[in-house]
Write a structure and sequence with these properties.
This protein is 29% helix and 31% strand. Strands 1-2-3-6-7 form a five-stranded antiparallel β-sheet, sandwiched between helices. It has a three-stranded antiparallel β-sheet with strand order 4-5-8. It starts with a helix and ends with a helix. By secondary structure, it is of the alpha+beta class. The protein is built from six helices and eight strands; from the N terminus they run H-H-H-E-E-H-E-E-E-E-E-H-E-H.
Length: 206
């Protein structure tokens, strides 16, 4: 499936890139590789950010992230065994949140993590439900570190070291696991495994 030029241009600009690509190479919407496919378990290779093909892949992954309504997407999920993922978490309405919830629900603009390595996991952890584009329609509770420190190369080839907390730290850990051949169901409390519809219904009843 192809995305129209207006939407592609918007995504390219959000990534901070110049619009100097051939449209047919940056308008893809990838199908998502689902659980059970060996691609999700394979070893992943380092990425060369100097290649134009890498930028084209990143743009197409961004197209796919938005199309599939995800907050993160990793290269293995689009059939590419490469060390690359993208995360974007929108701010949430804090009006009726507790202070604890406000601290947890962090946000992050569209960010590309190339050849990442998490160098520190906090000892303090939290439990929350997670879903995954590769396990469509289901969620389960996963324990994650409250904060992490990650080394990575950004889309401009710059080396970065950043600390993330709360929900953003969770999202990054989830995508980073994909680069290790791990799907969240490998580490979830599977007694909590449920359909998304059932989870929504249970939350509405609270």
């Amino acid at each position: 499936m192809k995305l129209d030029k207006k939407e592609v241009k918007k995504n390219v600009e959000e990534l901070g890139l110049e619009f100097d690509f051939e449209m047919d190479k940056i308008s893809e919407i990838y199908d998502i590789v689902t659980i059970g496919n060996q691609i999700l378990r394979n070893e992943n290779k380092d990425v060369d950010i100097t290649k134009k093909e890498t930028l084209e892949l990143i743009i197409n992954m961004t197209n796919s992230l938005y199309y599939h309504y995800g907050c993160g997407i990793a290269a293995p999920q689009v059939g590419k065994n490469l060390k690359l993922f993208i995360v974007k978490v929108e701010p949430v309405d804090e009006e009726e949140m507790t202070d604890e919830q406000k601290e947890y629900f962090t946000d992050i603009p569209l960010t590309v993590f190339i050849n990442p390595k998490i160098i520190k996991y906090s000892e303090d952890t939290n439990l929350d439900y997670e879903g995954c584009l590769s396990v469509p329609g289901f969620d389960a509770v996963v324990r994650r570190s409250n904060s992490i420190v990650i080394e990575y190369t950004n889309i401009f080839g710059e080396k970065c070291i950043e600390e993330y907390t709360g929900f953003v730290a969770r999202a990054i850990q989830h995508e980073y696991d994909h680069l290790q051949g791990i799907v969240y169901t490998d580490i979830a409390d599977m007694k909590t495994f449920t359909t998304r519809d059932n989870l929504i219904e249970a939350n509405e009843e609270k």
